[in-house]
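Possible regression after last week's pipeline update?

I re-ran a chain I had predicted before the update to compare outputs. Posting the input and the new output here so someone can diff against the archived version. Not blocking, just want to make sure nothing changed silently.
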Amino acid sequence: MPQFIKDYVSSCKQCSRKESIHHKKFVLLKPLPISNGPWIFLSLDLITQLPLSNSFESILVIVDRFSKMAVFIPNMSSITSLYLANLFIKNIFSKHGLPSSIVIDRGSLFVSSFWTNLCQQLKISRDLSTAYHPETDGQTERVNQILEQYLWIDPHFDSVHIAEDTPAGQFSTKFQSVQQDVKRELEASINRFKRYADKSRASAPVFNPADMVWLSSKNIKSTRPTKEPSERWLGPFLILKKVSTHSYHLKLPFQWKSIHPVFHISLLEPVKTSTIPNRHQEPPPQIIIEDEEWEVSQILDSKIKRGKLWYFVEWKGFSQE
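New output (post-update):
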């Protein structure tokens, strides 16, 4: 009887969706590789929604993972992939040559067909960060924090000064004449950090294609008005393939088509299969909402309601119904 109860509870789908996880974070730390010299392995990111300054409202951040040198390039949020490539050639390629690898996020600029084809033609490895896993490029995230802090605490700060201050904010670590010494120090530092980080982590379970897993709901928006008491885990979902050592491609419902289906293993939990025959399991009730942008075809009418101006519009691609 005790074993039956244990199996019944551990394999209950409804219980699993509400369950709090108490084990250590899955997967040990996996640091990014270290290059043999500067400007070989880079990372890119875009800081947006800054105050307008001389027609600029965003900053392109490029970090060399070897020397830790950071380049800050002011630009517009509406830049195209072609313009981004020209910025890269002007500010990086002309001074340091072509890199071997670039770590970037999944922004529309970086995943565009133009940028993809450009990296393929130049034989640059384009490593996309995993969705909802900022630790993939933690170094650039940290540089972004330093830059934003620099801009906001400047006693002479004014939105007009962002463009002028950005070049002054560029910095680099002086590296020695013998680059191998620098590499050895970086490796030692990373190993120390890894030992510290792994104390709060556990070895990840091995998932295979066709396995069923739970997906953490903490990054997924739902139709519920409040996050509590929503399910902590969604699914279960089928694993289609193993994308990397730490990421898996899940088979998501059609309604979730706007969500990228690749997730880091830290967001997954194994599903306990029930050995109890003919056991009824409730289907997942969750409906996912993603913030999508819709283009307005025309404004049909307007009215004042509770002191606010409301518009009745026709969305492009949809009927008035």
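Follow-up from reviewer: compared with the archived run. The first strand starts at residue 25 and ends at 26. Marking as no regression found.
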